[in-house]
Amino acid sequence: MEMESIxxxxxxxxxxxxxxxxxxxxxxxxxxxxxxxxxxxxxxxLGVASRCExxxxxxxxxxxxxxxxxxxxxxxDLLYALARRQRLREKIAAxxxxxxxxxxxxxxxxxxxxxxxxxxxxxxxDGVNVVEDVHEVLRKVKxxxxxxxxxxxxxxTGRLLRNIVAVGIGGSYLGPEFVHEAFSTEQQHAVDQDLNxxxxxxxxxxxxxxxxxxxxxxxxxxxxxxxxxxxxxxxxETMLNARTARQWLxxxxxxxxxxxxxxxAACASSSAAARVQNFGIPPEHLFEFWDWxxxxxxxxxxxxxxxxxxxxxxxMFDRFLAGARAVDIHFQHAPLDRNLPVLMGLxxxxxxxxxxxKTRTILPYAEALLKLPAHIQQLAMESNGKRVTVxxxxxxxxxxxxxxxxxxxxGQHSFxxxxxxxxxxxxxxxxxxxxxxxxxxxxxxxxxxxxLMANFFAQPDALALGNTREQLVAEGxxxxxxxxRTFAGNRPSLSLLMPKVNAYYLGQILALYEHRTxxxxxxxxxxxFDQWGVELGKKLASDVRSRMHKFRSGxxxxxxxxxxxxxxxxxxxxxxxxxxxxxx
Amino acid sequence: MEMESIxxxxxxxxxxxxxxxxxxxxxxxxxxxxxxxxxxxxxxxLGVASRCExxxxxxxxxxxxxxxxxxxxxxxDLLYALARRQRLREKIAAxxxxxxxxxxxxxxxxxxxxxxxxxxxxxxxDGVNVVEDVHEVLRKVKxxxxxxxxxxxxxxTGRLLRNIVAVGIGGSYLGPEFVHEAFSTEQQHAVDQDLNxxxxxxxxxxxxxxxxxxxxxxxxxxxxxxxxxxxxxxxxETMLNARTARQWLxxxxxxxxxxxxxxxAACASSSAAARVQNFGIPPEHLFEFWDWxxxxxxxxxxxxxxxxxxxxxxxMFDRFLAGARAVDIHFQHAPLDRNLPVLMGLxxxxxxxxxxxKTRTILPYAEALLKLPAHIQQLAMESNGKRVTVxxxxxxxxxxxxxxxxxxxxGQHSFxxxxxxxxxxxxxxxxxxxxxxxxxxxxxxxxxxxxLMANFFAQPDALALGNTREQLVAEGxxxxxxxxRTFAGNRPSLSLLMPKVNAYYLGQILALYEHRTxxxxxxxxxxxFDQWGVELGKKLASDVRSRMHKFRSGxxxxxxxxxxxxxxxxxxxxxxxxxxxxxx
Lengths: 584, 584
Fold this sequence. Notes:
Chains A, B: Pfam families: PGI. Chains A, B: Pathway: Carbohydrate degradation; glycolysis; D-glyceraldehyde 3-phosphate and glycerone phosphate from D-glucose: step 2/4. The structure is a homodimer of 584-residue chains. With 584 residues, chain A is α/β, with parallel strands linked by helices. Chain A folds into three domains: 1-99 and 339-528, Rossmann fold, CATH 3.40.50; 124-320, Glucose-6-phosphate isomerase like protein, domain 1 (Rossmann fold, 3-Layer(aba) Sandwich), CATH 3.40.50; 536-582, no CATH class. Helices cover 46% and strands 10% of the residues of chain A. Chain A contains 24 helices and 13 strands. Chain A has helices at residues 6-9, 25-37, 42-45, 49-54, 73-85, 88-97, 130-150, 174-183, 193-198, 209-216, 236-253, 257-263, 273-279, 302-312, 314-333, 340-354, 372-384, 416-421, 448-465, 469-474, 482-485, 503-524, 535-552, 564-574, and strands spanning 56-59, 62-65, 124-125, 128-129, 163-167, 200-204, 224-229, 264-268, 286-288, 359-364, 402-404, 427-434, 493-500. A six-stranded mixed sheet of chain A has the order 1-2-13-12-10-11, with helices on both faces. Chain A is globular. Chain A starts with 5 loop residues before the first helix and ends in a 10-residue tail after the last helix. Mean pLDDT of chain A is 95; it is low at 1-9 and 11-16. The interface between A and B is large, with 172 and 172 residues.
């Protein structure tokens, strides 16, 4: 194994395979060790100061406490050994220098390059220095957003462009939306709060016409710029919505080419340039991103840069990039046991593959991060919900948890009952020392942010410690309620305490989770950067669409080749039975 | 067992216990049967028309197709046998007639009564006919909302009350928000669309001061009515936010009692009446709900009625109640094998307890239902995330899946990769024949709603059927990509196809899921109506709050009795290290 080159680790299926990770001594040791850990209760170890201190790490004031994970120093040492066995550092280095680690698509994976500094060493992909490309597009975004915000660039009828509609789905939507929701209450880095408030940013993602209505119904097309986000400029939902938005602009301002030219822009690959132009969007409004940027890793490309800079000014986005860049450097250089995303990734592997926990919940104690869980859900589940290794063997070990979450304290009044008493689901608490908004209502014991954070500190202990029959007896709990009020405890969580909710630390959070995801994939020996699993559904949907069309235009029947269930459902849909509607 | 009365089934812990459900012949038969089913592939049975027809049921045009669940008719028969063994019908009847089936709190569970007709037979709880109480409050909501909407009832300074801020958390928030989001694009039952658009409804749930800012920053207090929703009027987050909102009103209009009297209302239990009045809200603005309404089952009480009627008019809410009522009657009277919520519940039990699937995803193909998954997540996970049976024995079988979801097609571009290729996660597809909004862009092959629904029809087949190496070879897939593009299939889902997204069918959906949840709990022999699991966290948070306060006011130290981890985190929070902030 040591003799193989890194590139071989990434080679595709047809040559002799390295043995499965489960066959390594390092994996087997962890399996045995997990049986010991299963007997440990967090209640018995959480009081040990040296353990608490050892199971923590810090970067630029962001503090990761993982003492409530079901681990000991020995667990971590075994995980580091597995990481070395899996050549984790080499894989990280290979990704960041532009090796084509997305082997099934033959692509580099360089979202880190999106956060490079202009004077960084070149990163060359297929003979091109991508650092230069990145900064060229960023300069273009900056200039364009400033031109719009200054009123220099206006709509076809001369009005200020104050509404920004970003049309995109999946990775072209969830990341920018998460950042937008967090920026919307961020004042520290805003150049001009009034100016930011003047601009409205909305996202149109779902192909459901109701989403179109929700997004556009109260906007004036004359004041609206529509950004179409799709790497290939072929995503079915996005392109239908783009044509819908174009029609909406035309309906208001006529079908003159200047309407699309002035009111629409695109974020797409340069290889889609012809499609963009055919659509009516001029080259100067094409803001490129590249094959080496995966959709779910694209927030830091023009996908996020353009809408967010139009709404908040480029400076705020630049601070966001700076935070991500800081974590990128940390990720590449900090030793494994001080490396926040590595630690988070190793703990993810531990919980899923060795402790058998199939789910994980992310709990930002910050309303500004209300859309973070949905973004991480996509990032993690699309990356690591796989069935084969990078070399094509069917994975026979547990990988890829279901990720979900809500902001605290809201989650506490929703699914926390299950976290405390139902199936074990490792939790990730994210809290901030300083809020975006100071509020201490007259007469209250503590400020509102303190009230929020009191819960952030309390919940992990409730999960870890639980309570016992003896405690309940001592508290005078009625005997018949004791079983119902007993908490078993021993539920793992980690706490990430960061200084402040601002653009810089949002960038950090994004990069932490991107790299956490990659670490898990590297450890599991899977390709976290492709998504073949979404192809079959697209193909079948296209078949259904064509059946609908043929049937409606009298050119075909519905049924040929369909199973009776799908045929029955489809028939109900296209032939609307009046009986079924009599209750409407 | 047959000799015991229903009431005994619900008795609390101290008397001789019935044997565990796992010890029954019915449960054991299902366990054995599940081993056979594990060998069945959906690909091999989905073509059988008789099976597809058998595995479906319909109610008022709402069509449930569960032919893609990993079941046969034999599975269903065994589940019905277990349902009889678990006295499912008797438990449903007991719940609906007002027996105190929430034994640990000694309460009836009567959300069905909230949907009663005014002339329904009395349902008596502790000597009171709750049907009368329900309709008295509904009349009060109707009168009040009409007075506000007509301008008869105005703010303290004479302005129209056009902003409605609902302050509540958990069940007092998620249900109303789900319905609000769906109503917002519903025009069919709207009395006057312009009037509805004039009113703005917002929810303030999180204690995070950023949520306060997000909710209130652009509202004029003179035009705002604040509804405080908390059964006991003591929920920590809600009451702090209520005091915050009151201060905001006072700051704008002075501390005259008329300000609170005219700008605030409460949804609370009558036993909290004194607290409501002390807060400054007059009795005529207290809209009661009752001990027999659980928070997560409260949408149909004043909790939903008041904010939704203010925003949309009472008529729309009334149609919503009618839809729920129709399902309530169906639930109580339809035979098990034709009973939609019973079928959904039995399938939930099958997937979790016999097939071992720990998660479940709900996928409304309707942007209007974007908040349904969060509501169902609370409803299901808080209800059935339990550790003991109703009689206090620790549950030693799998119960309580993790529920999550997003609207389709958005989810397809997020976590569907995992659904297709990662761990098995049963999926629930909800689609509608008719959209709220018709849109067919010129030149498009199909309407936007068709495009959406093409995906609704296609995805369940992609999950169930998958594809094979042979198919890929035939399609010319490059050999090295075959393992990556092979879909194992055999992933279970159910499809619920309903006529229309409107108030009536939204009521149906709500009741279907409420009853599905209850069925699962009845089958698992747990109490789906209490939530002791949230108590410990509250207690510990209160302790942290008091430490913060004492430390800040110089009256105490942080550390006594805390474990070193919590002490360390808390110290970081209260003593802000300047070093940690230098990157901000």
